[in-house]
Design a protein that fits this description.
By secondary structure, the chain is an alpha/beta fold. The chain is built from 15 helices and 22 strands. It has helices at about 10-20, 35, 55-60, 75-85, 110-115, 120-135, 170, 215-220, 240-245, 260-270, 285-290, 305-320, 335-340, 350-360, 440; strands spanning about 1-5, 25-30, 45-50, 65-70, 90-95, 120, 140-145, 150-155, 180-185, 190, 205-210, 230-235, 250-255, 275-280, 300, 325, 345, 365-370, 375-380, 405-410, 415, 430-435. About 45% of the residues are buried.
Length: about 450
């Protein structure tokens, strides 16, 4: 595919590196030369010019582009460049925005009429996921699949959990109410087999239905985690705003922000009686203690500084906070944060990459989500008549070893998949795919 990316910031650079590894024809455009310097070692073309210039877009052959991506800091520039790219012949366009209103489903057709096929707001996606994780403090990651008919839970199992040292064929047989789709052992994520066993410290990804979540909580030894009612949030940026907007009414939050003007702005945006905004440094131990961090249920470090977020979470844990969430934008730090047992790790780049990668697939993928720590993706496929996936039971399909089918929804009901499952037209299937291998599954949904 020919892909043009406008904006060589954190998201644009991440996308360019990711897609160039897959041998796509990538052009990265930015008007700041220093932003393009660090990408010289990858197989792609860089253009130092304004992405909102018609001449620049024509020179970049935008008329032959299969996908145009606008991820500059200014949403107006992203939308303008996508409109121009579409009029000049780009097949699909996606624009990053900072306005929640633009993401509403009722505006989707309007944006398509002006040349913007898809809108992405990474901070909004991050805010929602943060609250999903906070509401279920005993999990590392929780994803609602297919409108909540299925859920995926990433759980770190501890010493003493009843699921340890049992062959998976005995732990989750055909009639079990859960399915283990992947295991992260040390630094490697694997698709497990029947002979494999779980070890203390593994992060295990379970697929189940909502009514069996509490059973998994018992099996993995997480009964002692409290319900989160009080939050501390370090940083008052856009991700924090989206997290607060998704916070349930029964929770209370204290937000610590070092910029006094941002504090004032937060007060205007977040007009909820359960949110207290404090001007100060979230790394100030005396301030945290004075404001009651020892009795808080969860600590969220959501500043733009990955190192500060990791250190702040470590401090919160030392002060007795059970649940911590760190926004780690530097991908090189994610492994370190996980090894330090930070808790849930959020990376906005992976949200953007998942959304855009979905647009590149030829199969009918309704949703795609990245699992930051596992280096894997979860995708929802719509099944149609005659597709290869419907011709045999799952055990006889010869699926790639890097893929497992976790569950499906049929007539609104969530069903776990095993080897004898016969997938039918009209089903919606959830697949777990190790990083960059989802294309190997496409042929089964054609």
């Amino acid at each position: 595919m020919k892909i043009i990316i406008a904006g060589a910031g954190a998201v644009g650079t991440h996308l360019a590196k990711l897609f160039s590894k897959e041998r796509h024809d990538i052009t990265l455009i930015d008007d700041q030369p220093e932003r393009l310097e660090g990408i010289a070692n990858f197989e792609l073309l860089t253009v130092c010019a304004s992405p909102t210039s018609i001449i620049t877009l024509k020179n970049a052959d935008v008329g032959k582009a299969d996908l145009f991506i606008g991820v500059m800091p200014d949403e107006a520039h992203n939308m303008t460049s996508c409109m121009l790219a579409s009029k000049l012949g780009a097949k699909k366009t996606v624009a990053r925005v900072d306005n929640y209103e633009y993401t509403h489903a009722e505006h989707r057709e309007f944006f398509k009429t002006v040349g913007i096929d898809s809108i992405i707001y990474p901070e909004m996606l991050a805010g929602r996921e943060i609250m999903h994780n906070v509401k279920h403090s005993w999990v590392r990651q929780r994803l609602e699949i297919l409108d909540g008919a299925l859920v995926m839970l990433g759980i770190k199992v501890r010493t003493g959990a009843s699921v340890l040292n049992i062959p998976l064929r005995d732990l989750c047989g055909p009639d079990a109410p859960y399915h283990i789709v992947a295991v992260k052992h040390h630094n490697e994520t694997i698709i497990p087999h029947g002979d494999d066993v779980l070890s203390a410290g593994d992060v295990v990804y379970f697929m189940t239905t909502p009514k069996y979540e509490e059973k998994l909580r018992d099996l993995t030894g997480k009964q002692d985690y409290p319900e989160v009612k009080n939050l501390f949030i370090m940083g008052g940026g856009s991700t924090s705003v989206q997290a607060l907007l998704n916070m349930p009414e029964y929770m209370h939050a204290k937000v610590v922000e070092s910029d006094v003007h941002r504090c004032e702005r937060l007060g205007e945006i977040i007009q909820r009686r359960h949110v207290l905004i404090l001007h100060g440094d979230g790394r100030d131990l005396d301030l945290l203690v004075d404001e009651g961090i020892r009795s808080t249920d969860a600590f969220l470090a959501l500043t733009d500084n990955s190192e500060a977020n990791i250190l702040a979470c470590l401090t919160a844990k030392r002060l007795g906070v059970r649940k911590t969430v760190a926004m780690v934008e530097n991908l090189d730090y994610i492994g370190m944060a996980e090894s330090l047992d930070i808790g849930s790790i959020i990376n906005k780049k992976t949200f953007a990459a998942s959304h855009i990668y979905q647009m590149m697939l030829k199969a009918d993928v309704t949703t795609m989500k990245s699992l930051t720590v596992a280096n894997a993706d979860v995708a929802e496929f719509a099944v149609k008549e005659g597709m290869r996936i419907t011709r045999k039971p799952v055990k006889d399909l010869d699926l790639p070893e890097t893929v497992t089918l976790g569950g499906l929804v049929r007539n609104g009901q969530g069903i776990l998949i095993n080897g004898m499952t016969q997938i039918q037209a009209g089903d919606k299937v959830v697949a777990f795919c190790l990083e960059n291998t989802i294309k190997r599954l496409e042929k089964f949904f054609k």
